[in-house]
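We now fix the convention by which a protein and its fold are recorded. The integers have meaning only within a learned vocabulary of local backbone shapes. A complete example follows; check for yourself that the lines match position by position.
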Amino acid sequence: MSDKPERISLAGRLRTNFLTGMIICAPLAITVWLTFTFIDWADSWVTPYIPQRYNPAYYFNIAIPGTGLLIAVVGITLIGFLGRNLVGRSIVNFGESILNRMPLVRTLYKSLKQIFETVLKEQSSSFKKVGLIEFPAPGTWAMVFVATEVTGEIAARLNEEGEEMIAVFMPPTPVPTAGFLMFVPRSRLKLLDMTPEEGAKLLISGGLVMPDWKPAAGNIAVAPVPVVTSVK
């Protein structure tokens, strides 16, 4: 005789439906909220500097979300276009020469410019690889994002033993906005196949959202078949 399926109570069905609805609605609601929060933040910075005659809200008598963000994107793109030609490059160099004469401002400007050039430049490999290092003790592994190869004085100091060092960034969970900059030997770094986006999801979820992974055919370890010998 076949066993009868277990009957689910009304409270159990309501609980299951509620959890299913939360799985559907919560990510959508949070995504919409974050999107409009970012748009409002951009508008609050840009809209006050838009001349009244160029502001659509002046003609329609209503605030149009995203106007400031759109104008900021167009303005930044236009500045980038002008900065790539000879005249624009000359203006940028003149402005940088003024900033370089200011004691405190020049240090801040040079540091920020170097960071943005490293992260945003084309063909950049910074933070495009995810890896594992042993931290905080042997046998315990932490996920890191590979920043770049170590150069300059740090490389000269750390490469004395002949092993190349790699700069990695280890963010905390569940908010990876801060973390530790660490220099580890290349041999101690285990690179992963997951993308930085998948690594960020894994961190933010606290290990709950594991990315799918299918090992390559050549990397699948085949367990040895035990040999059984007959004993007479």
Summary: The two ends are 46 Å apart (CA to CA). Strands lie at 129-134, 141-149, 165-170, 180-185, 190-191. Residues 220-232 have pLDDT under 50 and may be disordered. The CA atoms of residues 16 and 99 lie 61 Å apart.
